[in-house]
Write a structure and sequence with these properties.
Layout: H1 2-27, H2 29-46, E1 53-59, E2 66-74, E3 80-86, H3 92-106, E4 112-117, E5 121-126, E6 132-139, E7 145-150
Antiparallel strand pairs: 1-5, 1-7, 2-3, 2-6, 4-5
Helix pairs in contact: 1-2
Length: about 150
């Protein structure tokens, strides 16, 4: 079963998943779901755009207490989730400072430089290592929007 299972997993990840999924599910049902998740992750990572510098443009202040979740993915490495808590009434510049401070505490200062630009923009630059992607994953904060652009 192990050889068949591994062959089916490789075929699934290589893009033939629809053809082999029924056989995989029949042969090893406990393996089918994790493989589907792995494929989804692989496809998501393949769609990422990498750069050496990103701009996070913060628009408007927070209208409630909440959390913004970002994901930084160095090319070929494990993604890092970064959760930023924002307080109700925090202005645009204050939200940018909070994002900067949390990014600074979450990331290695020898690899990344994080700074404020124009008061409401956060710049994330690599000092060394691979290029990286930044995604805005989700938010429970009302009012505040963040646009992420390659620099």
């Amino acid at each position: 079963m192990s050889v068949l299972r591994n062959t089916l997993i490789v075929a699934f990840i290589a893009g033939a998943g629809q053809a082999f999924a029924p056989a995989l599910a029949q042969e090893a049902p406990a393996v089918a779901a994790p493989v589907a998740v792995a494929v989804a992750v692989a496809v998501a990572v393949a769609d990422l755009k990498y750069a050496n510098k990103w701009r996070l443009e913060v628009h408007e202040g927070a209208n409630n207490d909440g959390v913004m979740r970002f994901r930084l993915t160095p090319k070929g490495e494990t993604p890092i989730d970064i959760n930023v808590q924002l307080k109700d009434g925090r202005g645009e510049d204050g939200c940018a400072k909070d994002i900067r401070d949390v990014f600074r505490s979450a990331l290695d200062k020898d690899i990344y430089k994080i700074e404020i630009d124009d008061g409401e923009d956060v710049l994330v630059k690599k000092r060394k290592g691979p290029d990286f992607a930044i995604e805005f994953v989700e938010s429970t904060v009302k009012g505040t929007r963040v646009n992420i652009d390659q620099e």
